[in-house]
Amino acid sequence: MGFAKYHLPKDKYPEDFKFNLEKENFEFKQQCFVGVLSLTDPPRDAVPYAVLKCRSAGIKVVMVTGDQPVTAASIAKQCNIITEESVNEIAERTGKTFEECFEMSNAIVIHGD
Fold it and tell me: Which helix (DSSP H) or strand (DSSP E) does residue 71 occupy?
């Protein structure tokens, strides 16, 4: 998440000014970028082991998430859901299409669109 600032003049925008984001009743240009905030929400410690235990019992584990594909793949790897190079990674590395890479891996990340 990025943050920016812009100093609004007090005479035009007193403390009780009602800002309206829908109709933008305030100046919204020439902001100064001040920084970025990033956070992580790692899986619980027990999750990777629980996934391996399920897999050893013959349960096929899949993950459905609203995360971006790269983020989803990273989390799936941390949780032992993806334990090999995915179809996506093989296609990117080799320049082949997904269809050409399907036989090379059992792991694929599919975007919701």
Answer: helix 69-78
